[in-house]
Write a structure and sequence with these properties.
heterodimer; A: 112 residues; mainly beta; six-stranded mixed sheet; five-stranded antiparallel sheet; 11 strands; globular; B: 113 residues; seven-stranded mixed sheet; four-stranded antiparallel sheet
Chain lengths: 112, 113
């Protein structure tokens, strides 16, 4: 059974800092890994999707890496801004089908 | 022009009632999903559905049933509601049943009294 863990559960940083969010998964037989953002009381917004054959994906100030063999992914946020405050969720997709398994999320607060 | 929409946004009901939550996507996607987010904010898949296949998470009670009148809609029907069903339910869709980006609705907050 796939299990996804995110560390830390919560993070508070001053504006401008570069930061790293961690995600680990127990079963390396995945098709892809996705990072989502969830704002309070809202749905999820997809940030980045990394295929199992890829090592990283970049979008603006966000960079996600994937080390499938070790079951780890990191989300790097450069020059953090207060608007980045949200919960960040990683999720893995199994080999068959697209039923995502989510981690518990990292609650990020960027202080002005 | 919302991509994935859900109704109602909030639902408060009594234990034992039967209720439905509606989901619509205007993205032309083939596959839709239902997720449950509990009070601890853990998101768990409930169903994956396209016109060919329904995949059910084995932990979902059979009181929950997805109903799809057409490709753009996947409604969630819940029989005999229990206190533990209180959660936020999210609908999502993707282009196909492959491993692709999923687009999520805003969620329906269900409270069972």
């Amino acid at each position: 059974k796939q299990e996804v863990t995110q560390i830390p559960a919560a993070l508070s940083v001053p504006e401008g800092e570069n930061l790293v969010l961690n995600c680990s998964f127990t079963d390396s037989a995945i098709y892809n890994l996705q990072w989502f953002r969830q704002d309070p009381g809202k749905g999820l917004t997809s940030l980045l999707l990394i295929q199992s054959s890829q090592r990283e994906q970049t979008s603006g100030r966000l960079n996600a890496s994937l080390d499938k063999s070790s079951g780890r992914s990191t989300l790097y946020i450069a020059a953090s801004q207060p608007g980045d405050s949200a919960t960040y969720l990683c999720a893995v997709s199994p080999r068959a089908g697209n039923m995502l398994t989510f981690g518990g999320g990292t609650r990020l607060m960027v202080k002005p | 022009d919302t991509a994935v929409s859900q109704t109602p946004k909030y639902l408060v009901t009594q234990m034992g009632n039967d209720k439905s939550i509606k989901c619509e996507q205007n993205l032309g996607h083939d596959t839709m999903y239902w997720y449950k987010q509990d009070s601890k904010k853990f998101l768990k898949i409930m169903f994956s559905y396209n016109n060919k296949e329904l995949i059910i998470n084995e932990t979902v009670p059979n009181r929950f049933s997805p109903k799809s009148p057409d490709k753009a809609h996947l409604n969630l029907h819940i029989n005999s509601l229990e206190l533990g069903d209180s959660a936020v339910y999210f609908c999502a869709s993707s282009r196909s049943g492959g491993a692709e980006t999923q687009y999520f609705g805003p969620g329906t907050r269900l409270l069972v009294l």
